[in-house]
């Protein structure tokens, strides 16, 4: 594999989740060589918690009770036995593959592993993945291991991402 560029974006629109998007492309060989798109993905990151009558959904169904304003104490109550917070990450890739990751955030580190992978009939074989994110000296370190094309789970890609203005 060669050098690649990777842009990751997290945003928030007021819901109890973070919006996520990422795109990657191979760097072209030489100054005028075009970049080659690899994959784009979008999704949502959220703290794992039981949904209640005050949560909207599924679909367009409104909440059946008044919204709850959560406090820092409510969030602290979600802390797991290891001192971190359980998270759920739903991602859809541009090639149609959908992943549900479960894991935890603990301090500056996030570890997630697929609980489910759904792929369209024409997609290449892809069975499982793990991802690790870590905040180190102001940079986001990222590693992605995959089980694909008949191979067991193994190193796939990693990067040191810098914040862009």
Residue share in helix: under 10%
Approximately how much beta-strand content do the residues carry? over 45%
Low-pLDDT segments, ≥5 res: none
Distance between the termini: 28 Å
| Radius of gyration based on Cα positions | 18 Å
**Major sheet size, sense and barrel closure:** 9 strands, antiparallel
Spatial sequence of strands, sheet with the most strands: 1-2-3-4-5-6-7-8-9
Describe it for me?
The protein is mostly beta strands and 165 residues long. 3% of the residues lie in helices and 52% in strands. It contains 1 helix and 9 strands. It has one helix spanning 72-76, and strands at residues 4-11, 18-26, 36-47, 85-93, 98-106, 109-118, 126-136, 139-148, 154-161. A hairpin with a 5-residue loop joins strand 8 (139-148) and strand 9 (154-161). The longest helix has 5 residues, at 72-76. It is globular and about 60 Å long.
